[in-house]
Amino acid sequence: MESTNLYHVAAAIVGVIFPLYAILNGKKARQLLIEDPNAKILVFRQTGIILIVLATISLLPFLLNNKSLDLIGLNFINTPLWVIGLFGLSFLILFVLKSVKLNETTAKKFYKTNKEISFLMPNTKPELNITIIVSFIAGICEEIIYRGFLFWYLHQYMSLIPAMIFANLPFALGHLTTTGKKNTFGAFILAFIFSGAYFLTNSLWLPILLHIIVDLYAMAFAYKSYQVINTTETDN
Fold first, then answer.
1. Model confidence band, residue 1 (pLDDT cutoffs 50, 70, 90)
2. What CA dihedral angle connects 230, 110, 218 and 37, to 10 degrees?
């Protein structure tokens, strides 16, 4: 007999409890990173662990009730070639991004545009490496949590658009006190694009790939921009 309570508990944790925690803890994390840039690796590592735990919580009700993960768009997981293709394409894109040469003007423009979240940007190789790892973790786990499980759960009680809104709202609000209102709105728009990709393909494969690409682009260009600016200032 299927236990629906497990789904309710998981939805409450990922849709309400964690976003509230992220909002309340966001200012503290932001302040820590501003005051101590060396804390980036620790904060990103903790973020990766939290996302893995939340994704596990989202999947547990299905696994314990012997329900197919196809219900939340993880149908590709039974086809190894999809998984190999996903990671292969992601690493290819990462290679391309890391190979791109930035001039000083482009680097300064990128940093100026993203000045509000500069404290999150990787400046050293170890910081870049951990952000790349977390980009993959976030791309997979956040899509499972929000575009997969939470959307599926809410869509049983409301129509398509409201389900998309309320599934993506916790995702966006989780960025509020850390990255600011502008980036929270941007996260919400991106979340809707990912949701559209999920709805059109009935699979999490495409939104996971898009999510990973967006995060890799942000982190790789942030690192390269910092290196260009820092080198230029040192030379002067």
1. very low
2. 40
Burial class (CB in 10 A: 0-12, 13-18, 19+), 91: middle
Return the SS3 of 171: helix
Distance of CA 154 to the CA centre of its chain: 20
For the four alpha carbons of 8, 23, 147 and 86, in that order, the dihedral sign comes to: negative
| CA dist., res. 130 & res. 60, Å (int) | 27
Rounded Cα–Cα distance for residues 138 and 169 (Å): 16
Residue 94 near residue 220, CB atoms below 8 Å = yes
The whole-model pTM stands at 0.90
Q: What is the spatial distance between Cα 223 and Cα 123, in angstroms, rounded to a whole number? A: 5
* CB 102, CB 140: distance < 8 Å: no
> What number of other Cβ atoms are within 10 A of residue 149's Cβ?
30
Q: Tell me the two tokens of residue 195.
A: 């949701």
Residues 6+ apart with CB under 8 A from 226: 107, 111, 121, 122, 123
Q: What is the pLDDT of residue 77?
A: 59
- CA–CA distance, 118 with 89 (Å, rounded to integer): 28
Whether the predicted pLDDT of 223 surpasses 50: yes
